[in-house]
TrEMBL record:
This is Peptide/nickel transport system ATP-binding protein. The keyword Methyltransferase does not apply. Pfam families: ABC_tran, oligo_HPY. Coiled coil: none annotated.
Length: 438
């Protein structure tokens, strides 16, 4: 492998889980539904570097880590380790890969077998792979415990006798037992007290130099990522949306999701706390039915309006959220008004009550002042809802407000700091302003 070749190359990796896929479901004629946990992820990791993989809980980052280690079989895609596709490996070459690529799990409480002594836990990989003599294994375990900051005298103790930080050190010693080249660190400090998190991160940093390790650090915690990583890949709903050098990404984030994540970091200074902040609205959509186009569009404060539409960005965001709720039929028409005063059935509310119904619903759903031309469109759509005609309401709003962000999936570019957002692509209809966001 030459110096400019990556140690790990992940190419269009997919991992779907399937629902409605049992024999009974098939007999009943139900179609299997894919849950797209990892959906076309690509990145490289170079020897000796730490790549961070960051995103909210449930974005697929841990599944990506486990799949690239072949702890899970992929749905599609390719992972090359040292130039070989790991999904093609078998026999001795698969064993060699499993030795060279290890994982440290998030939870040091459940990842250690409580019935085994610490010595046996750390030694287990050596026994499984039949490395060295009995005496060499025992000596190797003593050495490893000392190198992760524990005492060789603690060999015969059990996990429950150790603190959380010490248990994570045991997990790290176990991962290093086979002298790997590459380690996936899956939220290695998130289950630990804040006071010991820095100690464990510093230990991982020291061990990286000592053992010539390459890391993939999976974390939802941007402070941890900034402290440890060389580059960062940001993941949202099964996809990578931005990759860049750590300082560049923190100082000049490009993707609106990255910016929102950075905004969510608690600030120490009053000035910082009081400045205007862009916050993320809405929940993460389900990976069973991800949004079309850009997956972040249902929450993106910068979702792009049609080029010929004059509209404030804030107003457009509110109208897009209204549209999405109508498309999902996520508005309770039965409870409109005090004491559910509008009776809606299949035929909708009576004609003479429609204006009051529309006004009440608009006050509940639209919390910005609408210019008259948009107000009229919204009122017409809400009148469609008064007639219980969800489709007409959705079509009316789509005809007026459809965004490039829902029609077209933004690909990740391939420059030094790629980003998957139409603000930066060929379809861009606006000038991105990353420097003024924060
Ligand atoms: S493509 Fe559109 S919705 Fe997606 S991040 Fe960019 S501006 Fe936002």
């Amino acid at each position: 492998m030459s110096a400019d070749e990556p140690l790990v190359r992940v190419d269009d990796l997919q991992k779907y889980f399937w629902e409605n896929d049992s024999l009974l479901d098939r007999l009943l004629g139900d179609e299997p539904v894919p849950v797209r946990a990892v959906d076309g992820v690509s990145f490289d990791i170079y020897e000796g570097e730490t790549l961070g993989l960051v995103g909210e809980s449930g974005c697929g980052k841990s599944t990506a880590g486990e799949t690239l280690l072949r702890l899970r079989e992929p749905t599609d895609g390719r992972v090359e380790f040292d130039g070989e596709n790991v999904y093609d490996l078998g026999g001795d070459r698969l064993d060699a890969f499993r030795n060279a690529a290890q994982i440290v799990f998030q939870d040091p409480f459940s990842s250690l077998d409580p019935r085994m002594t610490v010595g046996d836990i750390v030694r287990q990989p050596l026994d499984i792979h039949d490395v060295g003599t009995d005496a060499e294994r025992r000596e190797g375990v003593r050495d490893l415990l000392e190198r992760v900051g524990l005492s060789a005298d603690q060999l015969d103790r059990y996990p429950h006798e150790f603190s959380g930080g010490q248990r994570q050190r045991i997990g790290i010693a176990r991962a290093l037992a086979l002298e790997p080249d590459f380690v996936v660190l899956d939220e290695p400090t998130s289950a630990l007290d804040v006071s010991v998190q820095a100690q464990v991160l510093n230990l991982l940093d020291d061990l990286q130099d000592e053992f010539d390790l390459t890391y993939l650090l999976i974390s939802h915690d941007l402070s941890v990522i900034r402290h440890v990583c060389d580059r960062v890949a940001v993941m949202y709903l099964g996809e990578i949306v931005e990759i860049g050098p750590v300082e560049e990404l923190f100082e000049a984030p490009k993707h609106p999701y990255t910016r929102a994540l950075l905004e969510s970091i608690p600030r120490a200074s009053t000035d910082e706390r009081e400045r205007d902040r862009e916050t993320l609205a809405g929940d993460v959509p389900s990976p069973r039915d991800p949004p079309s186009g850009c997956r972040f569009r249902t929450r993106c404060p910068l979702v792009i309006p049609p080029a010929d539409l004059e509209i404030d960005q804030d107003v457009y965001r509110v109208l897009m959220t209204l549209r999405e709720r109508i498309e999902r039929r996520d508005i309770s028409l039965e409870s409109v008004g005090e004491g559910n005063r509008f009776e809606t059935d299949d035929g909708g509310v009576p004609d003479d009550e429609v204006p009051a119904f529309v006004a009440t619903l608009k006050a509940r759903l639209v919390d910005v002042d609408l210019p008259p031309r948009h107000d009229a469109v919204v009122e017409d759509a809400l009148a469609d809802l008064a007639a219980a005609d969800w489709e007409a309401a959705a079509e009316r709003l789509q005809a007026k407000y459809e965004s490039v962000c829902e029609r077209s999936h933004p690909g990740l570019g391939d420059d030094g700091h790629p980003v998957a957002c139409h603000c930066y692509g060929e379809a861009s209809e606006r000038t991105p302003e990353p420097a003024t966001w924060r």
